[in-house]
Write a structure and sequence with these properties.
Pfam family, one: SURF1
Order of helices and strands: HHEEEEEEEEHEHH
Membrane topology: Multi-pass membrane protein
Family: Belongs to the SURF1 family.
Radius of gyration: 36 Å
Main location: membrane
Subcellular location: Cell membrane; Membrane
Number of helices: 5
Shape: elongated
Strand content: 15-25%
Structural class: alpha/beta
Strand order of the largest sheet: 2-4-5-9-6
Distance between the termini: 52 Å
Number of strands: 9
Length: 279
């Protein structure tokens, strides 16, 4: 076995094996889980920011151009403004509870809207603040005639595990705006995307604003995890190299401290080593 490889035998000790396994596992997680997780969030945030920026500079389009059928979904057009003419279904009473709006909790009021010669779409009228005890306050009635509304397209939200809908204060209450869940609760077919009213609309309540454009720290976090994944094996190699150097230095010092076999040892020195020197 080569001398250099023979000197690395210490890495087969349990402590070093455990260290190497931890290093390999950490590097694997950095490249396959942690970095992709943060970079994926950055991609999602960048896409949403682009959709918001595009919506500000784009004129409203007819709803039926993006949601032509009852089962249509407009996931690539979130936040874009659309217009639709039709009527509300006022007998359907659903609210989304515990929704943060401007830093405070609110109810967001949901109602189906039947588009003329088009699909039925869920409309978020806006928000109202809860009364004492988290009760729903009186909500202004809806217009009972045909109206034209302008709203922003929104993607349906996933349902929350363990958060089942319930009825209180005469309203069916949900924890997320899932068009599929609301459709199942009300028995009204709904499109896969919903609408969020802008200001000064028929049936509108407190206006829910557009999120601020903020890329967040996700890109830098993703790059940091990649760097950690690169540095971990380098650090391990450095530790191995340092340990190898220290062991070689100790071995060289031990050799230097040994008496030279070529130097003759006198009888007095031998006796002194055994019994000590006379004073």
């Amino acid at each position: 076995m080569p001398k250099r490889i023979r000197g690395l035998g210490f890495i087969l000790r349990p402590g070093w094996i455990a260290l190497m396994l931890v290093c390999v596992a950490f590097t694997y997680l950095c490249f396959t889980v942690l970095a992709p997780w943060q970079l994926g969030k950055n991609t999602t945030t960048s896409r949403e920011n682009q959709q918001i920026a595009d919506s500000v500079n784009t004129a409203p389009v007819p709803l039926k151009t993006v949601l032509p059928q009852q089962d249509s979904i407009a996931s690539g057009a979130q936040w874009h403004k659309v217009t639709a003419t039709g009527h509300y279904l006022p007998d359907v009473r659903v609210v989304a509870r515990l929704r943060p709006v401007e830093g405070n909790q609110a109810f967001e009021v949901l109602v189906p809207f039947v588009v003329e010669d088009g699909p039925t779409v869920l409309v978020n009228r806006g928000y109202v603040r809860p009364e004492t005890g988290s009760h729903i306050p009186p909500i202004p009635p809806l217009p009972d005639h045909t109206v034209t509304i302008t709203a922003r397209l929104r993607d349906s939200e996933p349902t929350l595990p363990g958060k089942e809908p319930f009825t209180r204060d005469g309203y069916q209450q949900v924890y997320s705006i899932s068009t599929e869940q609301v459709s199942a609760l009300t028995g009204v077919p709904l499109t896969g995307s919903y609408l969020q009213l802008v200001e000064d609309q028929p049936g509108g309540l407190g206006v829910i604003g557009v999120p601020r454009l903020d890329a967040g720290p996700f890109l830098s976090y993703g790059i940091q995890w990649i760097l950690f994944g690169v540095l971990a094996p380098i650090a391990l190699g450095y530790f191995v190299y340092s340990e190898l150097r220290a062991r070689r230095r100790e071995k060289q010092n031990a050799v230097k401290d040994e008496p030279s076999p070529s130097t003759p040892v006198s009888v007095d020195d031998k006796l002194a080593d055994r019994y000590g020197r006379r004073r």
